[in-house]
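Re: the pair you flagged

First of the two:
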Amino acid sequence: MQTIVPTAQALAECLRSKLDPTHLEVIDESAAHAGHAGANASGTGTHFRVRIAAPVFAGKSRVTQHRLVYDALQNFMTQGLHALAIEIL
């Protein structure tokens, strides 16, 4: 199995392909979490913020919306993504 490197660009590409967002920002906040649980020595690829709007979220509960994002990014979770802050717009 190919290793997926958690980068903002890789997460954004994945979310675009799976959720077809009308607005998307993916921000790597890993450097701000240096020394925290789940952080790595590089200061990248572990803590991200996602701001997203997509028609697929319409009429769904916040929990369901967040689950759609987590499900889309599941492969990254198993490759080192430790924390994900999600803002549904």
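Second of the two:
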Amino acid sequence: MGHRLSSAVRVLASAAVLTANLLTLPAAAQPSGVTRTDLQRHDLSASGREAVQVRVDLAPGVAFGRHTHPGEEIIYVLAGAIEYDVEGKPPVTLKAGDVLFIPAGTVHAAKNVGAVPASELATYIVAKDKPLLTLTK
């Protein structure tokens, strides 16, 4: 009986984490052709801050609109070619192995400009009490 209860608790805990992750990213922020996979989330030694790692996959030609984060974003391109439009800078196209740093609160957008799927590893150092992503105009 104890083993069944333990398994049930694990399933419920996993469901709660999945629900929390889905609720932190509004449906409007997830356009068709974009897949965000949460990899890890941990509290930092700095009070009120956390590190979040997400894999973002973009289908060919798909863009992720202008948005901000409540902290820094560190990007490592895993595959493909992604154009980043960071406010105050000219657009830049990065390919697998390239990196980009986006300061806290900076408006930016990304688009897969290649003919194959593109992927990035996004690491966020953010405030825990704010949404991970906020869409802008």
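The chain has one helix and ten strands.

-B.
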